[in-house]
From TrEMBL:
Keywords (A to Z) from UniProt: Methyltransferase, S-adenosyl-L-methionine, Transferase
InterPro entries in the record: SET_dom_sf, SETD3, SETD3_SET, SETD3_SETD6_MTase
EC number(s) stated in the UniProt entry for this protein: 2.1.1.85
Catalysed reactions, semicolon-separated: L-histidyl-[protein] + S-adenosyl-L-methionine = N(tele)-methyl-L-histidyl-[protein] + S-adenosyl-L-homocysteine + H(+)
Domain of life: Eukaryota
Protein name, per record: protein-histidine N-methyltransferase
Annotated organism of origin: Stegodyphus mimosarum
GO biological process: methylation
Similarity comment text for this entry: Belongs to the class V-like SAM-binding methyltransferase superfamily. SETD3 actin-histidine methyltransferase family.
Leader sequence segment: none
Gene Ontology MF: a single term: protein-lysine N-methyltransferase activity
Enzyme class: transferase
Amino acid sequence: MKNSKKKVLQNCAPHEINKVPKKVKDQLKPIVQKLLNQCSNSKVLSRKLEWDEMKTNYALLQTIQELEKKYHFPVTDRSEHWEKFYEWCSEHGAKFSCVKVKKISDGNFGVVAEEDIKEHEPFLTIPRKMMMSEISAKNSKLGPLISKDPILQHMPNIQLAMHLLMEYLNPDSFWKPYISILPSTFDTVLYFTLEELQELQGSPVLDEVFKILRSVARQYCYFFQLFQNDSYAKSLNIGQYFTYDLYRWAVSAVMTRQNVIPTADGSQQVTSLVPFFDMCNHINGKLPLLRAISQLECDEIW
């Protein structure tokens, strides 16, 4: 958690040099266990004690990051991948003729209309098969682990983050063109420095921030151990590359981009990442937002 502006990974196929060696994992084990104990047995009785606990957790995470930093993935420029993303969208049935993604400020990208769009006129159509969701996660190699792991079963956002991680690490992933245009870092609290956290002292949001930091640190520790000890989890392509920075990236991507979408039969709502649509600052249309069961259409934007 050293530098909120530092980009530590992005969109590069995994190589041997990115694998965390057993020797390093052995060094990490006692630190991870200590952090897990801290996060799992938190009994904060005052704001000062809570802050002291946060500093202890932060220091442990810094030690973990220092040990893992050699195995981070190199950063690539998002702007280099948009054309392939557009090609992938078109190839799989997305319709976006009157909008484009453009750099809008501070290196950020957003959807911009290239012509006037009439009210209630769909400007973006994304087929369901392009979405990453709880359903695609359960239908992937992650499915058997989801079916038996209580955290993945009951936390769809974590399920989706782990699905994103697995696809990120798969150089032949169907979603590679989408994953390649995701940001390499985020402005979530998971990237805050200790100094930035200190600026929240006295703010009513601080309790929630501490809960998020504690929860994600605990999840990292849990999955670190799961990928070491569970035979099926070890067979997936995640554990050998698993780091705190990689995990907070996936969690932050889901945290900032997730949408809840009806299933094809309308029987339930599922947490999803919807390529292209997740670049919009949007106001939901007056249903027919889902105008057909196999695709998502968006008809308002601001």
